[in-house]
Design goal:
The complex is a heterotrimer of chains A (714), B (107) and C (583). Chain A has 714 residues and is mainly alpha-helical. Chain A has 28 helices and six strands. Chain A is globular and about 120 Å long. The chains are: A mainly alpha (714), B mainly alpha (107), C mainly alpha (583). At the A-C interface, strand 1, helix 6, helix 7 and helix 27 of A face helix 13, helix 15, helix 17, helix 18 and helix 19 of C.
Chain lengths: 714, 107, 583
Amino acid sequence: MHVAAIIPWVPLLAAALCTACCASRTLRTLAAPICITGIGTAFVMTLVAIAKLAGAEGDHYTAYLAPWIEVGGAWVDGQYVGGMIANFSYHVDSLTAIMMLAITGVGSLVSIYAAGYMKGDEGYARFFAGVALFIFAMLNLVMADNFVLLFLGWEGVGLASYLLIGHYYRKPSAAAAAQKAFIVNRVGDFGFLLGVFCVYQAFGSIRFEEVLPAARALLTGEAAGLAPGAAAAYAVAQATQAANPAYLLAAPFGLMLGAFGKSAQLPLFVWLPDAMEGPSPVSALIHAATMVTAGVYLIARTIHLFELSPYALPTVAMVGALTAVVGALIAASAFDLKKVFAYSTVSQLGYMFLGVSALSTYGAIFHLVTHAFFKAVLFLTAGSVMHALAGQLDMRKMSGLAKKMPITCVLMLCGCLALAGAPLTSGFFSKDLILADAMSFGISAPTAGAKVVYILASLAGLAAALLTAYYAFRAWFRVFLGDYRVEFGEDDHGHEESHEEHHDPAHPREPHEAPWLMNAPLIVLALGAIFAGILLKATGVIEGAILHSTANSVEAPIAAHHGATEAAAGTGHEEGHAHRHHTPEYLHLLMYGVSAAIAVAGIGLAWLLHYRQRAIADKLRDAAPAFGAALNRKLYFDVLYEKAVVGPLRLVGQIMFLIDSLIVDGAVRLVARGPAFLGRGMQPGQSGKLHAYGLGMAAGIAAAVFLVFFAMSR
Amino acid sequence: MPETAISTLTLAHFLGIGAALFALGVIGFVTRRNLIVMFLCTEMMFQGVVVTLVAFARFHMNTTGQTFVIFVLTIAAAEAALALALVVLLFRRQRTLDASAWTELRG
Amino acid sequence: MMDTTFNSDHNWLPLVMLIIPVVWAAGLLMPIPGLQTKRGAWMYSAVTSTISLGFAGYLAFLFPWGEPDTVAFHRNDLDWIAGFGLHFTYGIDSISLWLVLLTAFLMPGVVVASLIEVEHDMRQFHFWLHILEAALIGTFIARDIVLFYVCFEFTLIPLYFLIGVFGHEQRWKAARTYFLYAFTGSMLTFAGVLYVGWYGSQDPAQVSGAIGQWTFNIDELYAIGQAMPLADQCWVMAAMLAGFGVKTPLFPFHTWLPLAHTEAPTAGSVDLAGLVLKIGPYGLLRLAIPMLPAAAVVFAPWVAAAAVVGIVYAALICRVQKDAKKLIAYSSVSHMGFCILGLFAFDPGAIGATGAVVYMIAHGLATGGLFLCIGMLYDRFHTRELSRLSGLGRIMPLWSCFFVLFAMASVGLPGLNGFVGEFLTLIGGFQSTVFHWGLAVVAATGVIFAAVYLLHIVRQLVFGPTNIPADHPGYSDAHEHGISPEHKHDLSFREIITLGPLAAACLIIGLAPFPMIRSIEPAVRNLNAPAMTLIEAQDQAADTEAAPAPTTDPLPAPPALEPQPGSVVIEPVPAPLVLGGER
């Protein structure tokens, strides 16, 4: 058995132990060490699993653990073949490897941070159980070798997210947010399920190592060298393509809906800002670094399926670009520090979707990794601020914290720089890669429609980049620079015990720097936020990884500007070469220049409005109150859903309940009324008088006799 | 000879007696109100049937009908014991033997 | 095909499993001093039902897992009323086995949970529970259709008394409605069954015997039913749907269910939702589909449509319920829709029908757990109104943990039991050869609605600021209390051992459903085979027919299921006793 097969189960064990730790007050403190150990072990095992990848035949290996669901096929020589095979078996390739490293790495750091952050919380053990459960599900998601196991992870992270958003379950807003997150995600899951059904219908299999090569072969037209399973899937898919191409065309749209739900894209983004009700480490880990990127991972993983459907990728591009702009706009107007970063996440995920839609899975995954670093830093520093200010998150009620929390200030600056795409930070490289690829994809697109879509999308991306730089530094300038001014919060986030000392009225409360237990992991992440980009770019790790995984799209612009890397990719991918277009080097250089300028402009604007002249910002805001109000209310998406979906459905439910009790049940009661009515008609006959009965009997006998006599005489 | 004397009586004679007994029983049952008399009337109906059965048995020269008669008589005896006991109980409840005093089964 | 008979020295075991609960019930009637007390009767019943579970475990242990489509423990030599062709024929295949296991598994929990709620006549209560168990086991093991029917109908009587005597305010109305509704439906079913029997008796080619010879052996009735003309099959199918559809319940025959559930005691609800509802789909799968394949194919789109309407309709109704128990009752209507959708999917791999059986088991566990949880709330606070209870996570953490688990299982979260069945029935529906895939798409919206209403109830009860009725009478058993004084409302040890096994089963089935799927799949395929062959033949006919002459008879005779060898033992009917001789 491969070591990879048990990697996800180590965090699950940790989760079970943490749950057991809920039992008593003394055990509770053990939860954090258990959780950290569990995730850390998974990280180390991931390294081992990746080391084995080098020796694996082909680009991947499959680590089989146990059977799960095998149905619709038949047993042949002790092997279940055909049908739907969804087992606990893990597909490890370089794309998986990157995701695993990101998940267990960021997961370890965040749980170390949380050990300090959550101290004194009554749900301490419960929290870590949730985090470990999340890591289990997320690893299943990225390691699964079939759609159904991926769905287990997909829903599992949804559950963990539900439980952790609802961590402060006594707050009605947290309860509502948790419920909303789960249900909106379920809408996506509905699409995901339909996508899986289409895939199964089209390929006769749901295993990645059969479906994806088959899809690739369908694209390239070269079926030689496929493994037997993949060849079978290819045959089924060819038949489907001939007879019923709708399945192939529809599959990516289903999966896309799932991805949009999980990754909080338009129109399903409404849950993510609300999800900030959860503790900050959860926001960092789940709602910024890992879970929300699952949609991007899904599309990257199944990029061939998307390539098979001509309208799928442009749709993704439009949604991604639109989300990037809308998210950035709302982020630029929000005052809640965590909400700013939440919308920022929505917006950045839009970039990633734009990336995959331009077949730049490299760019998307690159941005995913760098985003994991800098967004984790941002959320965790926001958490530190919140921790220090007793739950205060309103940027209007804090200012000049740099003096009180210098380390946090610097750390958040690192995050903001990377988010803004300041030159040479990690966000700079990954974002530009996406934009350049999208632009070049648009320029070289075969149809005019696609041209328009992609060029507009990349321009929208540039506009969003300006907003990004602006809102990132708006937050930073407001919180850390300027005059020192603070209003403490209500501290309804469950830190009663840790803050008890501050309630002494003799000493005014002072914001304090977070302990080193919390800052140490932040420093690691901040270093990553600054340097990961240039390191990964220079070494070509991610590029190589994408090239060796199923995310290597057939028409990818990838590696075109790195001829050497492509040569290193070997002969296996030559066949797609003819279709490839190249993102010219000048476009990258141009994009670097443009976006560096944009980043500086955005930062400058923020400096002007939120450091030099904060009054101007307020005036500007008042100038267009309707627009500001609309942005503050998620562009009325929530209202729309409440008025157009939730409310009507509830009304329909009420009506149906009425129908059920009046009409459906009424019909039954009407039928039941029949015998009763009949009985009432017969009632007078039952006089209770013995003589009447006797007479009736005699008459009956007489009638019978006559009848018989009559019959016999005929 | 006795045989010829009997043989002048045809089956119809016996059936006529049976039918008459039965009809008398029915009329009595319907017209009388005294529970005991009504019960006796049902017995009379029984006897009418019994006569018919015996007559047919004799006519067909087999014993099935007579077997049935024995059977019926036995049952009737048991039933009479039970019914009279019931009548006594009913009398005790209402101090009357009038059947119209019992109309609780009215629908 | 069911051609191998499992030769076992243990073929008395199902009979014992059927009789033993009756013996336990009879034991309760004995004038034993210990049983007079409430606790004594409760203890007796807990022990005896656990022993029954032990027998079920032994049965599973002896089951030939290698060839799960065998009818194991088969026995057909026990006469019942031989002159009418009635035999005490029983046997267990994997479908029966899992349902018997579910029955035996739920019973001890139900018994243990009933200590607080049942305030009087504890002996009578447990008497009826045991009788119900016997009737259910009889239904699942029967291979004679009249034996099946008798047991099927007999489930009504114990439930009538469980609801009527031990229920809530409107208990007699609920009991009466339930009884009459279900009884009316199943009378029609019986008429259908008799018709098939009569049809067989008219055609000596079908049965080994003379004209006028009746058989009620299920395996033989398969052959008889399949040979019936389409119109006859459709009538019988309609009759079967009347009985089994009401039991399931299939929209629009579901209105008895919410009433029965809200008025029933917890034990009644758990048994009703967990076990009795399963007889409906089981009957359809065991009798209707293999016996009437042509009619099943004709009816499938309509039945599936009704199921899908039920899924969405009941789910929408769930969301607006104010009574926790009623909400879960309606959720059963919605969930059983998936089951029926899967049964009538007739997809090539029989994935849908396999999923339907898995779903039956899963639904029994998850919904049973939810009902038990709500019952525990009622024990404490004497209310089930969602608006009067909230924030129980704080005062009852352990209860909340279980409740969320069962709710998630019911939502269909992968890794828990509900998902497997739901996913398989949906994919089966999507691949269906007899109805449009759009039905499955509509049904799949059920996964959203399930989340909506179940998360709604979780949010109402578990989340939010703590609020319990101020005037609640408290926990009636003073010496029982939660795990710690600060959680004095939380689960007692007794309740933990009630819910624990259920929760464990939910997890195990969710993470390792393969033994169940592997064993169920061949058996289900057997039962589906006649219909599938018919569909394939129709498809081929449609292909060849594309050019010329439409044939008048598009229905080729379906292949008969081979009857059980040795099961065709029909006693020659003794000459009727003729009174009187020749002259």
